Amino acid sequence: MSSTAITEPSGPRPKHLTVGRIGLYAFLVIAALFFLIPLYVMIVTSLKPMDEIRLGNLFALPMAPSLDAWFKAWSSACTGLNCNGIHVGMLNSIKILVPSVILSISVGAVTGYALSFWRPKGANILFGVLLLGAFIPYQVFLYPLVRMLSMVSLYNSIPGVVFVHAIFGLPLMTLLFRNFYAGIPIDLFKAARVDGGGFWAIFLQLMLPLSTPIIVVAAILQITGIWNDFLFGLIFAGRENFPMTVQLNNVVNSSFGEKEYNVNMAATILTAIVPLVVYFVSGRWFVRGIAAGAVKG
Amino acid sequence: MKPRFLRFWMAQLALAPAWLIVIFAYIGTIIWTIQISFTNSKVFPVSNYVGFTQYSRLFASERWIISVQNLAIFGVLFIAGCLVLGFLLAVFLDQKIRAESVFRTIFLYPYALSFIVTGLVWQWTLNPTLGVQQTMRNWGWESFTFDWLSRGDRAIYVIALAGMWQASGLVMAILLAGLRGVDGELWKAAKVDGIPTWRVYVHIVIPILAPMFATATVLLATAVVKVYDLVVALTNGGPGISTEVPAKFVIEYLFQRQNLGLATAASTVMLITVLCVLAPWLYVQYFRTPRSAS
Amino acid sequence: MKHISRKLLGAAAVLSLLAGPVAAAEKAEVLHWWTSGGESAAVAVFADQFNAAGGEWVDAAIAGGEAARAAGINRIVGGNPPTAMQFNTGKQFEDLVAQGLLSNLDTVAAADGWDKFLSPVLIKAVSRDGHFYAVPVNIHSNNWLWYNTALLEANGITPPTTWDELFAAMDKLKAAGVIPMAQSGDAWTQVLLFNDVLLGVGGRDLFLKVFQDGDVDAIKSADFLKVAQTFGKLREYGDAGQQGRQWNQATGLVVTGKAGFNFMGDWAKGEVLAAGLTPGKEVGCTPGLGHQVYWIGGDVFVFPKTDNADAQKAQALLAHTMLTPETQVAFNAKKGSVPVRGDVDTSKLDACAQAGLKLLATPDASVPGSDFLQTPDVLGSLQDVIGQFWTTPSQTPEELQTKIADIFAAAK
């Protein structure tokens, strides 16, 4: 697949401004509105004071916009007796995110590479179980995993939660890399073997440099997935290490008193900012990488 | 020639982490789960075996039956909806339009949001007394009614809609990537022959994109089986128990209702269903045709 | 592995000794789900009193009872339990006791004389086989009817004392174009409403026959059918915005005069007070419509077993502090509940609390909450059936009766 084919639209040539063209743009604009409405609601509500929200007009622009709710969500919203907002969780989330992403992608890449080119005995069984593993609800694993991690003293720690993310990231990561490597001509690999390349030499010197597009896709999927995780953070990270999503849940689900929609919305957007930035910055790369990784289904 | 196993000992070593994870985290927990499902464990696992009691209770439970039905409705609508919408978006984006990257980003951004956030936002937007319905009435359309979220027979469709909102962009990205790989000569040839554009898409492009559709379907299907957060944030299973799903059944009996036996029986049934549905398909997809040496 | 971690722990202990003597504050990590404004104020009373008594309160709040209980149980399983952990009064912690995972509190209970100031219902709820395993901290009552006094007056309605009067009043409100009954969409509030009807229409004996004895014949009786019919009739008086509405938003509708009535527990007072109004005045209260019965519910703290001597000391101190008269009065005033001690000054509590206390003191006018009497499993099935009935107008009271009978028959 050549790179020009990826960046250039290849549909039928435009016929300049025809009825069809106008219909095309109309469809895209309406679709864009559908996708943007929730974001609009979140932003507008987060800028309104509570008096305005009580009026009940969800879509109206704020009459007196203020950033108070944002400051409150960031630094002073309360959970129990701790009134530090959700900023504490941001650092925790990063501490969990970085090693989890690196670990799960490394293991996934090596596994995909070994499965695709070397195919040692039992490779098919391993891959089959991994694939099925991707479809099992996480809830099934929680209880025994708590037991296992506490046996090796990793329960309630950042290494513990990183380990759990690596476990559950493995099926998808392996699938991505295996498919990507399946698109690389096997002759390339055979030639490297003839030249005396060993397992790691071929991986590090030949395959890894070729893998940039799929690494980008894997990174994007893992960053958003791990950042948005709530369940594992709550159960495995321990109180000092709660990620941002757990704190968001604490802020949003306070069960007594008036619901502060503006603070909730601001906290929600703040929590989503990291994956959103990743998407806005890397959207183009994502499409390219997917093109390279999804070739073989 | 050394035996295959020895020849590839480094490859085996490299696969050791994956093997360990598969053996302990996957197979180990699955065996444990199946074993517990035959006991009457409450909060903690005990080995007091009661045969198939938990299973007969499970299938007598109206809530479980509704959960399974909902999963089927949600799964079909969500996957079909995402594929259709994602395909349309990809095709329309592929027409050399202006501001393509802006549109692409707009369609893709919901995938960066968690299901919890998606659920909350749509709950606010579609609440009959707060969101769209109230706004329309405020604007003077007094009889406007969109109360699906509070109707037991319709709420599951709202959940599918919210899911489509979140995941269609991903399908679009995958299919757009596929469309960019379609040979430009194809369009020239089709034009020369005077074949209408829509027929080219239906008869030639869609078959070419089949592998991409398969990838997208796999990704969407994993989300379907695991759907939990979205339901909790959007309806919490209500009104009544009309939007319950199996994963929620499992976690609720696991912790809140303190019946480990029933929870593990439910997960075992889920697991077996997944195996029956997926195993043949996965086999065809990934194992039947050996890797081509081209 | 275990030995290695033991050794590491030992090394850490030696290191901490080398680091010099530390202030002997007894650290207690307390896991609870009281995360809102009013609840936080109440929990701060515990923290302050505990710190003043020489302890060090480490707050571990997790929003949502389910999430908090799941996290706590997982930590106990994982061998890293919190010092203390919250449950609702009742059977939720029964399995923990059976597995021998909770500290026995008999020493503290004997020293402080729990049997002298706790009611028999509470003693039964926090002990198993004659041993204490939990500290009760408050008494909540679920079955209150709240109403907007001004709205009722404007429509010429006197506060109802019977169910027939309530329906007549709600018909008037419906005709006047206001929401007759504010109801939340959360399933537990629908169950609460059902229990209110069971107590108010069916009476104390029927309630006990159902929940205490699991008497299937009582459920199949005509009296129970009347309960189901009354509950079914109430479906016609809610509005379309129930789904997604939380209990406090429902109470808020009554507080602001948008709705006439709301069935809710005594914690609804917090909403009234937050709006700057007085419970019993602008917003009236009736403790149980029809048969006046006090439903006893509340919260307890349990103390997971530990080998750590410091943690054991902290547990004993915390158990003692939570039940001193000063702590009880200050905590419950903030929480909207009633102190568990029968020997503290309650004269400063508001009119609604006084009415409740009077009932509580009347013999045979109170029942233990359903959490005391049935497992979470049975109550969960009940919740499914009731929630489904409430949101499906086509379902008949007879169907509800049969389904509830099936649940209790299966639980036998």
TrEMBL record, chain A:
It is a multi-pass membrane protein. Belongs to the binding-protein-dependent transport system permease family. The lineage of its organism: Bacteria, Pseudomonadati, Pseudomonadota, Alphaproteobacteria, Hyphomicrobiales. InterPro entries: MetI-like, MetI-like_sf. It comes from Kaistia dalseonensis. Its main location: membrane. It holds the Pfam family BPD_transp_1. The chain crosses the membrane at residues 22-43, 96-118, 125-146, 158-177, 198-223, 261-281. It comes from the Bacteria. It is found in: Cell membrane. Keywords: Membrane, Transmembrane, Transmembrane helix, Transport. This is Glucose/mannose transport system permease protein. Residues 90-282 form the ABC transmembrane type-1 domain.
UniProtKB/TrEMBL annotation, chain B:
The keyword Kinase does not apply. Residues 68-281 form the ABC transmembrane type-1 domain. It is a multi-pass membrane protein. It comes from the Bacteria. Pfam families: BPD_transp_1. It is found in: Cell membrane. The keyword Transmembrane helix applies. The chain crosses the membrane at residues 12-34, 71-93, 105-124, 155-179, 200-225, 262-284. Keywords: Cell membrane, Membrane, Transmembrane, Transmembrane helix, Transport. Belongs to the binding-protein-dependent transport system permease family. This is Glucose/mannose transport system permease protein. It comes from Kaistia dalseonensis.
From TrEMBL, chain C:
This is Probable sugar-binding periplasmic protein. Residues 1-24 form the signal peptide. Part of a binding-protein-dependent transport system for a sugar. The keyword Protease does not apply. Keywords: Periplasm, Signal, Sugar transport, Transport. InterPro entries: Bact_solute-bd_prot1, SBP. Gene3D superfamilies: Periplasmic binding protein-like II (3.40.190.10). Its main location: periplasm. It comes from the Bacteria. It comes from Kaistia dalseonensis. It is found in: Periplasm. Belongs to the bacterial solute-binding protein 1 family. The keyword Signal applies.
